């Protein structure tokens, strides 16, 4: 059960090499929106690791609004993530779009399986992910309530997989300046209602690179257990989400400020 009433202690996700999400400390998950090439993912992996990230993100299967937009390198993308992990030791966080791909994800050693906003209520997918032992990073749907996010987490927990990380990534509102509106209140509310760790995605929330750091700082102040941040070695040339991607140098500076903020709070 995701409800704190049945589980007063915080759930802490611990990977085999000791990386943790939850239970104090600030987990930093960083990397490109999409894996684009071996050079791109390995370069970014090295640089976010040097900046203090403990996890590498990178999309191989991409849920794009337009069918004509880059859809990801798919199986090859998972291979490249594996290479980046071999080089840096960073565990991999990557999005799954279909239950048919679960075996492929497990065979490629994906450390944390991301369920994207668009699949938050893909209940058949959630049920299948309830049967695996890999931690799941579950993103809040584009227009989903906190209660709906928790019920989606419940689908995974009910199947027997208790390693679920909740992710606030901004919700649809009438505001158009930002890509989405970061729901800061979701962080303390999720922490109050549930024992699961809460990670915030300021990149997809704001949709603008210069907004990433202020939103991330606000998330830390509000009690987030971690952040998932898009970083690209050449944002202007990124195949997806370049406008919201930090350069490795920008990420390095932001990470320093975020660690300081996490200590202060
Ligand atoms: C992503 O993380 O690249 C992504 C597609 O995020 P979301 O599902 O939150 O839109
Ligand atoms: Mn993205």
TrEMBL record:
<feature type="domain" description="DAHP synthetase I/KDSA">
    <location>
        <begin position="13"/>
        <end position="258"/>
    </location>
</feature>
<dbReference type="GO" id="GO:0016832">
    <property type="term" value="F:aldehyde-lyase activity"/>
</dbReference>
<protein>
    <submittedName>
        <fullName>Phospho-2-dehydro-3-deoxyheptonate aldolase</fullName>
        <ecNumber>2.5.1.54</ecNumber>
    </submittedName>
</protein>
<dbReference type="GO" id="GO:0009073">
    <property type="term" value="P:aromatic amino acid family biosynthetic process"/>
</dbReference>
<keyword id="KW-0808">Transferase</keyword>
<dbReference type="GO" id="GO:0003849">
    <property type="term" value="F:3-deoxy-7-phosphoheptulonate synthase activity"/>
</dbReference>
């Amino acid at each position: 059960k995701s409800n704190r009433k049945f589980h007063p202690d915080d759930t802490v996700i611990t990977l085999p090499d000791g990386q943790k999400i939850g239970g104090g400390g600030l987990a930093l998950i960083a990397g490109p929106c999409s894996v684009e090439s071996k050079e791109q993912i390995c370069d970014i992996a090295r640089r976010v690791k040097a900046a203090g990230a403990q996890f590498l993100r990178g999309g191989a299967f991409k849920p794009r609004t337009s069918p004509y937009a880059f859809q990801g390198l798919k199986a090859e993308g998972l291979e490249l993530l594996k290479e980046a992990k071999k080089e840096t030791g960073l565990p991999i966080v990557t999005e799954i779009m279909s239950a048919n791909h679960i075996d492929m994800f497990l065979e490629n050693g994906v450390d944390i399986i991301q369920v994207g906003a668009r699949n938050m209520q893909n209940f058949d997918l959630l049920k299948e992910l309830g049967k695996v032992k890999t931690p799941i990073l579950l993103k809040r749907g584009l227009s989903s309530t906190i209660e709906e996010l928790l019920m989606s987490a419940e689908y995974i927990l009910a199947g027997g997989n208790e390693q679920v990380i909740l992710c606030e990534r901004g919700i649809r509102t009438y505001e158009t300046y930002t890509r989405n509106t970061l729901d800061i209140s979701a962080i303390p509310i999720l922490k109050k209602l549930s024992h699961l760790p809460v990670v915030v995605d300021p990149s997809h929330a704001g949709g603008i690179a210069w907004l990433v750091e202020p939103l991330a700082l606000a998330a830390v102040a509000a009690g987030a257990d971690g952040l998932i941040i898009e970083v690209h070695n050449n944002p202007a040339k990124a195949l997806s989400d370049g406008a919201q991607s930090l350069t490795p140098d920008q990420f390095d500076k932001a990470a320093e400020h975020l660690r300081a903020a996490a200590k202060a709070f």
